[in-house]
Recover the amino acids of this structure.
C-alpha cells in the first residue's frame, strides 16, 4: 500500500460544483502539502500544514481551502470549481520540511 | 525572475552518454536542494539531495552545488532509456519556511 494515498485518482466535475480531494498518510509525518501541476508551470504550492492546528497559504491558495482533520489526513476543497482549476493535484508529506514524499496524484477536470 | 529555473528541454542524449541537467535559484539564503524524477503521469520521486557546496554521488547520479553562483546540477552517467523522465529541481528557501519551491522540470529523453 502507498504511504501517501490520494482519493479520488481521477475526477470530472462541472463548473460551480464543490469538490473535495482527500489525502491520508501512514508515514507519521507532521508536515503535509497540496500542490497542483500544470504543463509548463511545474508544481505550485496551494496550502501546507505543519500540524493539525497550523495551516498556511501557499503561492496559489485563491479558490481553495483545506482541512487538517488529523495528523494523517489533509483534504483540499474547491468551493466552486472553475475550468482553470483543471490540473494534476499532488499531496505530499515531510518529516523535517526537507524531503517530500508524494501521493499518486489526482487528475481533476472541470468542465 | 522565477525562484527556481530549469530549461524545459527536451534534452536528448544517446544511451550510455552523460546527461547534464541544470537548475538556478534566486534565494541566496537557500540551504537545501533536491532532485526529483517524474515519469509521465506519475508522482515525483526523490532521487538526490544536497546541502553543501561540491559534489555528491549516488550510483550513476551526481548532484553538484555551487552556492556562490546559485546553481545546482544533476549528472546522470551511463544514461539508460529508463532514465527518460522529467527531472524537477526543488529548493528550500532560506528563513523559517519549511516549504519546497519547484522548478518547472527538464524533460530528458535517452535515445536507444
Amino acid at each position: 500500500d502507498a504511504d501517501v494515498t490520494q482519493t479520488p485518482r481521477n475526477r470530472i466535475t462541472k463548473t460551480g460544483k464543490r469538490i473535495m480531494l482527500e489525502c491520508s498518510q501512514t508515514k507519521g509525518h507532521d508536515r503535509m502539502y497540496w500542490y497542483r501541476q500544470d504543463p509548463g508551470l511545474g508544481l505550485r504550492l496551494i496550502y501546507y500544514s505543519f500540524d493539525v492546528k497550523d495551516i498556511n497559504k501557499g503561492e496559489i491558495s485563491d479558490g481553495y481551502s483545506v482541512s487538517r482533520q488529523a495528523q494523517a489526513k489533509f483534504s483540499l476543497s474547491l468551493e466552486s470549481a472553475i475550468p482553470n482549476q483543471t490540473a494534476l493535484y499532488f499531496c505530499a508529506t515531510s518529516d523535517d520540511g526537507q524531503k517530500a514524499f508524494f501521493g499518486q496524484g489526482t487528475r481533476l477536470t472541470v468542465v | 525572475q522565477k525562484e527556481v529555473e530549469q530549461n524545459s528541454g527536451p534534452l536528448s542524449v544517446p544511451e550510455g552518454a552523460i546527461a547534464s541537467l541544470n537548475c538556478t535559484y534566486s534565494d541566496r539564503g537557500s540551504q537545501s536542494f533536491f532532485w526529483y524524477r517524474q515519469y509521465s503521469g506519475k508522482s515525483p520521486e526523490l532521487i538526490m539531495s544536497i546541502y553543501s557546496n561540491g559534489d555528491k554521488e549516488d550510483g550513476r547520479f551526481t548532484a553538484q552545488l555551487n552556492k556562490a553562483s546559485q546553481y545546482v546540477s544533476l549528472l546522470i552517467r551511463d544514461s539508460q532509456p529508463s532514465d527518460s523522465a522529467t527531472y524537477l529541481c526543488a529548493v528550500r528557501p532560506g528563513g523559517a519556511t519549511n516549504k519546497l519551491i519547484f522548478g518547472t522540470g527538464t524533460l530528458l529523453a535517452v535515445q536507444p
Observations:
- The mean pLDDT of chain A is 93.
